[in-house]
């Protein structure tokens, strides 16, 4: 491993905290947050990071790589300061996601899973963000930018390129960098977890309509187990 002594010491201290969250003898359960921890330092799942996890959790490098290549949140090459994901799944696409993608890709000058020359932006086409009620959606370092248009998405890219803060629709007031958010995903809070709304009116509208109309969920009716009833009848 080529980590400096200071970086290695910080990784070891953080790894110890992560492992302590799990019962004794189950340190391998720390693998997923450990991968995020490595990305918070290196910006991707680096060879050095894999070596560190292997030594710390006593896991084969091949097993770590298998997990890292299974989940799309883990990157196998350096990621930009801002990971910009444009949803082009069905609903976002028909609501304008495809047009947003084309214009953003042209402006940044890269395609999906590619990074700008200055290292500022990595672009990717992403599948459903579970935010269909706000389509079309763009995510930056996993933070939501709802109800986007080509114009608003391009303005956001302008802000990133100019070094200005960008502001998610929900969540933290200012979008963190990729490495900063990876540390949060590793389980280390950054003090911004209670900023901004977590759900907007579009998400809660069904509940509001139900309350206004006095609708409630149906009462569950207990159904007898037919097998039990049959056995009971036979016993009689």
TrEMBL record:
Cofactor: [2Fe-2S] cluster
Alphabetical list of CDD domains matching this protein: TRX_Fd_NuoE (cd03064)
UniProt superkingdom: Bacteria
Binding site for [2Fe-2S] cluster: 87, 92, 128, 132
Keywords recorded for this protein, A-Z: 2Fe-2S, Iron, Iron-sulfur, Metal-binding
GO molecular function terms noted in the UniProt entry: 2 iron, 2 sulfur cluster binding; metal ion binding; NADH dehydrogenase activity
InterPro entries: NuoE-like, NuoE_dom, NuoE_N, Thioredoxin-like_sf
Cited Pfam families: 2Fe-2S_thioredx
Cofactor notes: Binds 1 [2Fe-2S] cluster.
PANTHER family: NADH DEHYDROGENASE [UBIQUINONE] FLAVOPROTEIN 2, MITOCHONDRIAL, NADH DEHYDROGENASE UBIQUINONE FLAVOPROTEIN 2, MITOCHONDRIAL
Protein family per UniProt: Belongs to the complex I 24 kDa subunit family.
Name of the protein: NADH dehydrogenase
């Amino acid at each position: 491993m080529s980590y400096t002594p200071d970086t290695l010491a910080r990784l070891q201290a953080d790894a110890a905290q992560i492992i302590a969250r799990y019962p004794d003898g189950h340190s391998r359960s720390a693998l997923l947050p450990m991968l995020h921890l490595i990305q918070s330092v290196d910006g991707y799942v680096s060879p050095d990071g894999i070596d560190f996890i292997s030594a710390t959790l006593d896991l084969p490098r091949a097993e770590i790589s298998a997990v890292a290549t299974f989940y799309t949140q883990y990157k196998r090459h350096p990621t930009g300061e801002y990971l910009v994901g444009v949803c082009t799944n069905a609903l976002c696409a028909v609501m304008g996601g495809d047009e947003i993608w084309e214009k953003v890709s042209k402006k940044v000058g890269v395609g999906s899973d590619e990074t700008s020359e200055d290292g500022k932006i990595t672009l990717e086409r992403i599948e459903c963000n579970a935010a269909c009620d706000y389509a079309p959606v763009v995510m930056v370092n996993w933070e939501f930018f709802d109800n986007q248009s080509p114009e608003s998405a391009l303005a956001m890219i302008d802000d990133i390129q100019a070094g200005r803060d960008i502001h998610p629709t929900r969540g933290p007031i200012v979008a963190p960098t990729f490495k900063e958010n990876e540390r949060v995903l590793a389980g280390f809070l950054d003090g911004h977890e209670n900023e901004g709304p977590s759900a907007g009116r579009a998400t809660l509208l069904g509940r509001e309509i139900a309350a206004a109309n006095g609708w409630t969920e149906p009462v569950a009716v207990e159904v007898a187990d037919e097998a039990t009833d049959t056995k009971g009848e036979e016993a009689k």
